[in-house]
Amino acid sequence: MERAAQGADGGGGSNSSSRSSSRATSAGSSPSCSLAGRGVSSRSAVAGFGGGGSRSSPGSVAASPSGGGGRGREPALEGVLSKYTNLLQGWQNRYFVLDFEAGILQYFVNEQSKHQKPRGALSLSGAIVSLSDEAPHMLVVYSANGEMYKLRAADAREKQFWVTQLRACAKYHMETSSKMMNQVEGQQKNLVHAIESLPGSGPLTALDQDLLLLKATSAATLSCLGECLHLLQQSVQQVGQPSHKPGASENILGWHGPKSHSTEQLKNGTLGSLPPASANITWAILPNSAEDEQSLPPEPEPNSGPELVLSEDEKSDTEDKEETELGVMEDQRSIILHLISQLKLGMDLTKVVLPTFILEKRSLLEMYADFMAHPDLLLAITAGATPEERVICFVEYYLTAFHEGRKGALAKKPYNPIIGETFHCSWEVPKDRVKPKRTAPHSPAGHEQPTAEDPSKSYKLRFVAEQVSHHPPISCFYCECKEKRLCVNTHVWTKSKFMGMSVGVSMIGEGVLRLLEHGEEYVFTLPSAYARSILTIPWVELGGKVSISCAKTGYSATVIFHTKPFYGGKVHRVTAEVKHNPTNTIVCKAHGEWNGTLEFTYNSGETRVIDTTTLPVYPKKIRPLEKQGPMESRNLWQEVTRYLRLGDIDAATEQKRRLEEKQRVEERKRENLNTPWQPKYFIQEGDGWVYFNPLWKSH
């Protein structure tokens, strides 16, 4: 914006420092914006600047804020200041007009052109005005929208006069915005109270769909406006600190202004049905019922060490993977609407238990395993003849992994893993299928499920995942293929956030793919996920920039998952670029949809199209429930899954509550005994977690 303004300012004007002529003239009408009301009297303005070329007319001063029955005539401050344009043209004199009523600083080429369209304009609401020693008598105006004006006055007194007036104008308009927000907050509370006061039965109730929608959207809109105001207020508080860069915590959304009374009611509990409108809906965050603690089954010994998982017990997975879409049942929609109306923008959802009917019938740990549904592409990375081929193979695998792992774009949430929960599985991949994608034969259409009749003719890929921490919720997974000397070690911390009409989940952490045969390590990150349109039929999209890099070879890749623009645009878009950093050469580019068709273009000019919907899916091999330990995902969640399949949401909710309460009870016991949790399969190393017996240490 600054460059655009400077570009428009390119012609004419003197390069010398200005002899500013500033005066207040009658223009506008805000009762509290007069020069006198702002702490600089018109008399002092005239006395101070009369001899130096700056003038202020006493007759133009507006009526005081408390005087009269109508709005007084308001002055605008105007005069010549020198404005920094660019390196070539430097400082140029421009005629500035400060409009108190509108809260806008405008500038023109000269005084004669001030009745024409201004060369530039800066909104002062939330603006920062600071002094600078970069040049004599210099001040800098930082607008809340990111624009910046570098200005110079004729002398120190005139500089201070402009700074005082600009700051006063910015403060006035910020306070006005705050008052308006307080009024809107009060009106929204009245609206919520009016809706919640409606009877529980009759033609119009508190659970009317349109009223719930109004309640939810008004809360989300207010939160968004409040957050914008909060960011502006933060900027104003940092006057004189233009170099301040917000820390990570400051970038987290969340309005710190007045809170809606219903926000404080968020407690955890059962969501099978809605109570009457007169009752508070609660989701208890940390219940501590004594009778619940007594009725819970004992926790398995957490520190018993790694268990031997016999692969000969594993059988091909026949679990039903179909999920019913959300948004089709009105009673479910009512619960979602009521929940949204009580959440706050930017609110951390870690401790908010969401309604059971939005859950997938699998744990998050199993979802990570489902990202490995194309193990032939993973193992094919080792078959690459050069470092360039191998990094491209990894990018091809990475981009095709999310479709099957996310079960398309269906917006349901997997179970939050219980601390100590584990998931084990494996895949058998026919050896003749493991080829780099660029040379592999074209796969037939449809999701075929390849199998290897003879184990000696297949590679074995083993997978183990474990929930190693509850707060924060950290999941780890490790997979290896001993025959191909390949392994992947990953730790992920999921952080959910309410974003108005959507929910965002950040995947914090990283993974490392190791190719032991080549001595290469590829460090990669994961994208964020967003559940959109949560008021209608929710859908999932991925978003954010992720990186893949190999320090040994110098190759890296940048992958961008594009979220859908507000207007128009395609969904599920992804682009990628693979670069050889020592030579700054781009060796591959890719674009398409992560759950559809991807097109790869190589530096040789060759292109290849991969349709993720027709790639062969290799079924997991997993032990039957009767041979699984009590903390293995499917065994642990089997009752919740069973009731979800039966459509008994109340029973599923109760089973889920028991599991989660059991986890809380055990956590309190460990805190009382000062006994930290000891995972079975992963060891903490620095900020990360590593499998206890990884392939690179055992070979």
TrEMBL record:
Biological process per Gene Ontology, one example term: lipid metabolic process
Positions of the PH domain: 74-171
Comp. bias intervals (Acidic residues): 310-325
UniProt-recorded Gene Ontology molecular function terms: cholesterol binding
InterPro entries: OSBP_sf, Oxysterol-bd, Oxysterol-bd_CS, PH-like_dom_sf, PH_8, PH_domain
PROSITE patterns on file: OSBP (PS01013), PH_DOMAIN (PS50003)
Complexes and interactors: Interacts with OSBPL9. Interacts with DIAPH1.
Sequence similarity: Belongs to the OSBP family.
Reported function: Probable lipid transporter involved in lipid countertransport between the endoplasmic reticulum and the plasma membrane. Its ability to bind phosphatidylserine, suggests that it specifically exchanges phosphatidylserine with phosphatidylinositol 4-phosphate (PI4P), delivering phosphatidylserine to the plasma membrane in exchange for PI4P. Plays a role in negative regulation of lipid biosynthesis. Negatively regulates APOB secretion from hepatocytes. Binds cholesterol and acidic phospholipids. Also binds 25-hydroxycholesterol. Binds phosphatidylserine.
Protein name per Swiss-Prot or TrEMBL: Oxysterol-binding protein
Lineage summary: Eukaryota, Metazoa, Chordata, Craniata, Vertebrata
